[in-house]
Amino acid sequence: MLAGMLQANNPFLIIIAGLLIGLVHAFEPDHIGAMSTQLIKNTNKSKKQDLRNLTVVASLKGALWGAGHTSSIILIGLLIAGLSLNIPDDFFISAEVLVGLMLITLAIFTFTNKSIFKQKHVHPHTHPNGISHTHSHIHSVDHKHGHKSYLIGCIHGIAGSGALVALVASTMNGFDMMIYFLILFGIGSIIGMTVASGVMGLPLILLSKISSATKYLRYTIAGVTFIIGLNIVITVGLDNKLFSLN
Question: Contact, 169 vs 178, CB < 8 A?
Fold first, then answer.
């Protein structure tokens, strides 16, 4: 049905197709796996007020993933159709492998409950007596900022079916129509991952209230994400003969 909507070259149908494809695209296993490793780190609070706040944070991280994903998709579309650049297939194959390796890395750091990137913050503080000094602390880059979620989305947008959508869109009649499709596809993926992250975040937060569940929940997410990443690397490697048995 979606293929027919694209082939019809009807602006309205293409817009609807872009939204629908983007929504479905957000729920692919590697996307869900990558985001779940970010959401599990939000489950270390216990106040009732935090339940709503952490659900909002989970949704926001999903939206940032979608924004990063959209950025890469539109950039690829502009390079291919706007500047008529011929991006070699090896680039997208390498990007697929990178996604697999990224998932494996996220899984390992999630399993060990460590942060991949750390950032030092300095906060000024003034005492009532007028003496000022600073407090510094180190936390993960993703603390309150979501840089990591955006970066993960960017990498996902370059590889896989996301890049394929950009290539298909670049063949449409008219540069404007291609841009409309990519933007709507991006909006659909943002909406899809925002909803998915919010829905995933709530049970993760609730389960984390059980002291014995947090560790096993983290192990499960890390294990599934590791398998997805390893499967991507092996599948892409075998399909493209990247592995030599000689």
Answer: yes
